Amino acid sequence: MAGKSYDYIVIGAGSAGCVIANRLTENAGTRVLLLEAGGQDSSMFIHMPASAAIAARDPKITWGYMTEAEPHLDDRSIQEVRGRVLGGSSSVNGMVANRGNPRDYDGWAANGLPNWSYAHVLPYFRKMETFDQGENEWRGGSGPQHIETCPATNPLDQAFLASGPQAGYQRTEDQNGRQHEGFHVAQRFTRKGRRWSTAAGYLRPALSRANLTLETHAHVHRVVFDGKRAVAIEYMRNGKATRAEAEREVILCCGTINSPQTLLLSGVGDAQHLSEHDIPIVAHVPSVGRHMEDHLIVPIQYATSKPVSVARKLTQIGRWRTGLEWLLFKKGLGTTNFCETGCFFKSSDDIDFADIQHEFYPLCANMGSDQSNFAEGFMFSMGLMRPSSQGRVRLTTASPDDHPAIRFNYLEDEGDRRQMIAGVRKTREMVHQRAWDELRGTELTPGPQAQTDEEILAWIRSIGSTEYHPCSTCRMGTDERSVTDDEGRVHEVEGLRVVDASIMPSNVTANLNAPVIMMAEKIADAIAGKPALAPLVDAARKAA
Length: 544
What we know:
The chain is an alpha/beta fold.
């Protein structure tokens, strides 16, 4: 049965989908259907920054993904949080706003994507944001996404910032501006004490437009093809099978796990894998779901010698007080995401540019746990930024209701193992600087018993987890490892695009929310037939 017809059908109202829906409907003559598998972003835990960990553990607004046993992490299964709600993962993430290093994007350009150099993406980073420190060559002052600079007043944050130069590292005043590498005060996607997701920044302003139709609780089952052309989608909504027609394009913005799953269920992928599940083949695109990357993290934790850890304010009574103050005034501890300082640094002098990230917390916690577990102390959440290890997403069945099989293969590559070990050693050097003398307690993890490379690696294997930055399962490119072209169009078919982190050619030295929003802004211009914003060559040349 034929369904309603639209110019574009956008699947997924997350970090990319909200951007695409907003920009396409700026033209009043363009009809867009935006589908979201989850519901409204009405939970207080979404909007109060300090409750991000609670939102990330809420099964009503997340997909509940677990990896297969990770062979190089002691065969542990890792929880992979993905948002299933308006705003997608931008409604459940840690709100950290980082763009990445200019050389990340110049590397994309050097590998066959010349229109994705730093000079080409910089105008879109500027277009997407309103930065609280004002507009300049690198920063935007009037975009939909609000980015605020953290206060970073806790003594532990101040010690962290002071220890960097003492250990020989640079201090950067804006890691998203002229200089990426170094110790910095963090920036976050918040505004006036609230999370600022893409649902807030892009979707809500567009909902009043008559040419945008939003449907929540709409689980897409497959894309329908006429020959090689995508012409419709089939989905379930409130228990009812529904179909919608796309006159121009179907645009998948489902994320690194769901976009390849949807392609495979629709008959686009490796022919042999599709035949295993008796799925009719539309197009043999063998790399769908392959070459997945993620940032592996470990928590390096210390006790404190003075009662300055934020965890002291997070007793049961303290949490009630925090929530009430936030509800009434949008002030106090409820406005923080707890990660108010950080740094990017090199694991060794042989590395071209920073490959390790610290997100610093004035408390201890295990984000991979099913329960909130704040404890006194301080913590370096240390992440490997440009891993060589790669994983994949595969179907387990031909049913869209069954989760796919996910495996990241963390630490499969020897170079990744060396970089993580070196990162632990360099972190210990940072903590032994004089800035920490009045605050440093005992090392809790890895602990003084882990001294040799083998002991440190064993600890990493036992505790390593995800920073929730999966990407590259539908890579842009021109070689056999790619799935899409430089504007997200899927190879071997017509009328079908992917726009989300899955099309990143490789991971970047950053949290992924800002890069994904930038990519969606850039590709939205291409879809709408607008000329690309002019490359900012001079500003890019000055950046490091």
